[in-house]
User: Which sequence fits this backbone?
């Protein structure tokens, strides 16, 4: 019986070549688009994962927890999940830092770890005239960058992110430095129409809501990333003191709540006229400079010594700790263990995997993934409907054949087996054609080195279009398309078998 069914199915397939070609084309194209689309998404997620773990977050990233509701904390800072105000949420400290690091040193699963701070800053030349105005209308072209404050030698033990092509990497953790990525350098030169070189003095202004911190720095080097195709291309590096001051991580920030009201750390509340007077006032000072009439500027301006001291960098302040494990397969269990320990010790901190550590980048790719999958589902449904319509017409054209078989005693199950065997061969052949086309397309696209713009690179996790076809995606697509072929064939066969043999013969 099986041999008869097989022979009849093969004969019927080649008897109607037009139907065969149309159906194979539809299944093949559907398979091609699905596998290629999944291949693009696979590469985007794989590249983002590899880059994040190897260069930025490590296997585990520890950050503080925000006291504000609806605030996500990650490597690149803290932000509100839904914009409520224009002010950026404050990036929390990792506290108590020493207690956490002491705990990490006792864990045999940990290979090494490093600490850092983060701030979003914009660059400008130190000698930029006040009258200068940008020629670029789009502020997105301004040379802003995320800046990690790091202890460079400690950081390099964990991450080999930066490849210095001009200048030098700091030789000790005590050096003052700023390392700028090549893309930010290009944006700077384009925006200010001025070349940026090693040794140039620049001003870094931190973007911290209403409060802005500035630092004058000399450029010590330019670098490219270890993964040149990554979309993460705007993270610079500076010394910890600079990073802390820019981020507002000063002694004053830590101790402000405990300073008595009697101590004045700010300028007097007097008006400008009262502070500096008019020309007449200065004439008066010149005329009468006796000890009795001498103005006490120290009292007038407040305690400048104490204020300056409290504006120094807080050497105990950190935003995050990045951890590399000896065995990355233990990441999930150790994240759970650390978060449990934080809760038990009443520590306001959190352990994150790479997805949580680079949440904003992962979100962008996730949104792209949802869009792509939605498009692929729509495509698959469309292909299914077209195949079904094609088969309905084809099956109805064979009513006489079905009626004859039924009249000769063939059971409905026998007729179903013939049609499902035909569907099986068409699905297998169509899927194989689609897989071959997808593999060829992957080879062509990967060899062409197609460059993506800034928006697309953020969406797809890299500056180059790549297709990474996995065995799992091929297997899943083959199963889905085969199931679609069977479903598409089931409906028209069911309709045909409802017709009586006599009616079918007479049609």
Assistant:
């Amino acid at each position: 019986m099986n041999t008869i069914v097989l022979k009849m199915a093969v004969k019927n397939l080649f008897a109607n070549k037009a139907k065969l070609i149309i159906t194979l084309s539809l299944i093949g194209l559907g398979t091609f688009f699905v596998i290629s689309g999944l291949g693009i998404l696979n590469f985007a997620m794989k590249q983002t994962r590899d880059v994040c773990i190897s260069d930025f977050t490590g296997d585990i990233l520890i950050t503080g927890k925000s006291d504000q509701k609806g605030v996500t904390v990650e490597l690149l800072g803290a932000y509100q999940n839904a914009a409520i105000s224009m002010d950026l949420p404050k990036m929390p400290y990792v506290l108590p830092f020493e207690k956490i690091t002491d705990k990490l040193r006792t864990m045999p699963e940990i290979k090494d770890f490093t600490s850092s701070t983060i701030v979003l800053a914009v660059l400008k030349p130190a000698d930029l005239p006040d009258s200068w105005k940008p020629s670029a209308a789009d502020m997105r072209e301004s040379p802003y960058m995320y800046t990690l404050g790091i202890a460079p030698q400690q950081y390099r033990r964990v991450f080999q992110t930066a490849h210095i092509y001009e200048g030098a990497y700091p030789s000790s953790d005590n050096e003052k430095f700023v390392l700028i990525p090549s893309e930010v350098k290009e944006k700077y030169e384009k925006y200010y129409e001025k070349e940026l070189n090693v040794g140039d003095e620049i001003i870094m202004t931190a973007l911290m809501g209403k409060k802005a911190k500035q630092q004058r720095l000399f450029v010590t080097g330019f670098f490219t990333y270890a993964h040149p195709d990554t979309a993460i291309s705007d993270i610079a590096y500076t010394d910890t003191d600079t990073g802390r001051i820019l981020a507002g991580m000063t002694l004053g920030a830590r101790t402000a709540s405990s300073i008595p009201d009697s101590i004045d750390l700010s300028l007097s509340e007097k008006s400008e006229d009262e502070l500096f007077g008019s020309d007449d006032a200065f004439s008066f000072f010149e005329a009468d400079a006796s000890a009795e009439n001498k103005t006490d500027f120290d009292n007038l301006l407040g305690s400048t010594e104490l204020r300056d001291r409290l504006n120094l960098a807080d050497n105990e302040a950190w935003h995050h700790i990045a951890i590399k494990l000896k065995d990355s397969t233990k990441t999930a269990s150790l994240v759970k263990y650390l978060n449990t320990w934080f809760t038990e010790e009443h520590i306001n901190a959190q352990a994150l995997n790479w997805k949580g550590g680079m949440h904003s980048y992962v979100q962008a790719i996730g949104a792209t993934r949802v869009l792509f999958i939605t498009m692929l589902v729509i495509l698959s449904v469309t292909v299914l409907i077209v195949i079904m319509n094609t088969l309905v017409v084809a099956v109805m054209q064979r009513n006489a054949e079905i009626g004859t078989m039924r009249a000769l005693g063939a059971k409905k199950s026998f007729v179903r087996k013939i049609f499902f065997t035909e569907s099986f061969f068409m699905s297998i052949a169509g899927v194989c054609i689609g897989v071959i086309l997808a593999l060829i397309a992957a080879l062509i696209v990967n060899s062409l080195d197609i460059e993506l713009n800034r928006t697309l690179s953020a969406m797809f996790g890299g500056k180059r279009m790549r297709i990474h076809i996995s065995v799992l995606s091929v297997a899943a697509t083959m199963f889905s398309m085969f199931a679609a072929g069977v479903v598409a064939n089931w409906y028209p066969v069911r309709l045909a078998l409802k017709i009586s043999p006599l009616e079918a013969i007479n049609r």
